[in-house]
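ok so for the tutorial part 2 we go from a plain amino acid sequence to predicted structure tokens. step 1 is just haveing the sequence, like this:
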Amino acid sequence: MNQRGITLIELLIALTIISLLTITALPNYQTFVSKGRRADGQALLLHIATLQERWFTENMTYAGSLSTLGYAADLQTSEKGYYTVTLLDPTAAAVVLQGSCPVTSCYVAEATPVGGQASDGKMALAANGSQYRDANHNNSYADAGENHW
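step 2 — the prediction. this is what the tokens look like for a chain of 149 residues:
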């Protein structure tokens, strides 16, 4: 007798293998996608830093709001919509930097993830070039390993 096709056992084995591959690969893929989307927020933070430095060279102080830098509002959405960015007030900026942060010599721009990126941590960029990422989502950049993107 000539049999054609596959047996139920062969089909179940194939489905089991596919399921195991999916279970192990999906978290890695999601991490990869999240890191890729993070570049959207980083680009806007770097653009704001460039505008701040230009403003500083012309005015000898940093701008206290994004609207001062030419944006339509003080809360900006990144190009692909994964982050909203704002300048922190001096009190909140001082907490991030663990010291004082007067507008005349300091700023901190913070990117908050939204939409499909909401499970990622906030990011911040300070006038001194320090980069922060709240990897454990506790609204603090003071934890170990959170001093870089």
